[in-house]
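Continuing the series of single-chain predictions for the mutant panel. This is the parent chain; the variants come on the following pages.
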Amino acid sequence: MVSEISSSEYAIDDTLSRLRNLAPMAELGLFEAIDSLPQITRYKPDPVPREAIDKMIDAATKAPNGGNTQPWEFIVITDRALIAKVGQLYSDAWFETLGTTPPPNEPPVYRAARYLAHHMPEVPAMILACVDHTRGSAPYTPGEPIVRGRYASSLWLAVQNLFLAARALGLGTRLTTAHLRREAEMKALLGIPDYVETMALIPLGYPRGNFGPTSRRPAQEVTSYNRYGNRG
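Parent structure:
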C-alpha cells in the first residue's frame, strides 16, 4: 500500500511540475519575451516536458511563410544516446573550424559558443529545424540536388516563433549551424531523406542563470526614414 501511495504522489508531483513549467506561457508578454531572449549556452540537466515542446512547435507552425507552403519539418531529439551522438557531430564540426585551444583574448561570444561546443552532447533536448523541398512552391524532381536556402525565409520566421514560445515557457534556446559541416553524417544518423535540408540545430533546456536584457544596437542606429541614412 505504501508503494502505491508513493507512486501516486510521484505522479502528482510530476504533473504539478509540468504545469508550473507551462504556466509562464500566459504570463509573459510578447515584448518582455523579445527583450529578454538571449542565446543560451548553459543548461540545467532537467528534462524538457513533452507538452512544452509541442507548444513550441505549434507556435512555430503559425509563422508567415511564402505561398503558405509551410515547408518546415522539426526533428525533436530527446533520446539521451542520440543526443550524445548528434552533439558529438556538432562538437567535432565546431572544433574542426575554430580549434580546440581558444586564442588569447577570445571574445566572450566565442567563449560561450566554445562552452556549448564542449557540452552539446549533454543538453536536455534538441530540435533540428529542416526544410522539406517537396513541400515548397517550386516543383521538385526526385533525385535532383536541392537548391539550398530556397525556403530559408519561411523557416527562419518559424524558428523565431519557436524561440519566443520557448522563452515564454522559461526554456532557453540557441541558433547554431555548425552541424552543416557534418550534415551528411547527421542525415544518415537521423534517417533524413535527400530532399530535406537541415538548417539549424537548436539546443533546448532550462537555462543555468537568469534570462536578461540582450545586448543589441539601438533601433535608432539602424533605422532610416524615407532615404538611406536619414535617422530623423
